[in-house]
Amino acid sequence: MANDMANDMTIRDEALGWAVRAGDPAFADWEAFTLWLEADPAHARAYDAVTAAVDDATTLLTEAGPANDDHVAVDAPIRRRPWLASAIAASIAVVGAFWAFQGTQRDLYTVETALGETRRVTLDADTRVELAGGTAVEFDRKDKRYARLQNGQALFTVRHDAAHPFEVAVGDERLVDIGTVFDVRHDASGLSVAVSEGAVQYDPDGADVRVSPGEVLRRRAGASDYTLTRLPAEQVGEWRDGRLTFEAASLEEVAAQLKSATGIDYVAASGGTAAVSGSILVAPLRKDPAAIGPLLGLSVRSQNGRWVIGSR
Fold first, then answer.
1. Which value, to the nearest 10 degrees, does the dihedral of the CA atoms of residues 253, 238, 209, 123 take?
2. Using CA atoms, how far apart are residues 40 and 37, in angstroms rounded to an integer?
3. Given 3-state DSSP classes, what are the helix, strand and coil percentages for the chain, each rounded to the nearest 5?
4. What is the pLDDT of residues 183-220, one digit of tens each?
5. Is 57 helix (H, G, I), strand (E, B) or coil?
6. Backbone phi and psi for residue 19, each to the nearest 5 degrees, phi listed first
7. Are the CB atoms for 14 and 36 separated by under 8 Å?
8. Residue 118: count of CB within 10 angstroms of its CB
9. What do you get for the CA distance between the two ends of the chain, in Å?
10. Dmax (CA) of the chain
């Protein structure tokens, strides 16, 4: 018990010292102060208590004023009062900023799917996210209106709220929903955003492009420019029903999407330059991976446990 009391006294003294130093306009050691606050929850509690107590005392002094103008002893606290008030204000501002910073920290968790697997995450009654195979998405326990697509593909069906729009982070870019249903793919080939209902604002702090129903925005990996083209709305999220549609896609893109959807190790032949178009069902490929050849007009060969696709 004695040790606990001594420890409490030490923390209180440290808190008082920080309150005094932080109130000095020349104070610059904010990093050390923040580290001290973070070291133990008791530090922040003690600091709050000290600043609150001093603030109360200062208010009382201000309201009471000198009891006797001829009494010299009153002069000392009156002269110190402006400095003390600014010190307290600065101290409270620091604590407020610190806790505001703490409050903005996200409490993230990751949901992942294996290749060939799909999964649904329900965030609330009107908001769900469906993950394609080989996908990882981060969600925030404290904010159900936020997600970060690390890699892969996901279909977002969200309740639109103009006051608190749903936000999807993809790399350094942001997508903000202005509607309800949109599909996002982020992999080695780049980024695509397709909308079937409502709208999505792509990169609102930069390019600020609106993607409307029946449109798909594509940006190649490593590129800053993008294309915005038409897309049948029924194709958005069709991978949930076991269908994939390609339009002038590279062999690398086709192989990556086939691998994601089936779990089969498809790879693109080196040096292949074919632009692949067509629509296929995924289920038959699980029984016969080579069936992709006649379906999309490609060559297919098995090599060391992998299925290599190329142009004919």
1. -110
2. 6
3. 40, 35, 30
4. 999 999 999 999 999 999 999 989 999 999 999 999 99
5. helix
6. -60, -40
7. yes
8. 19
9. 82
10. 105
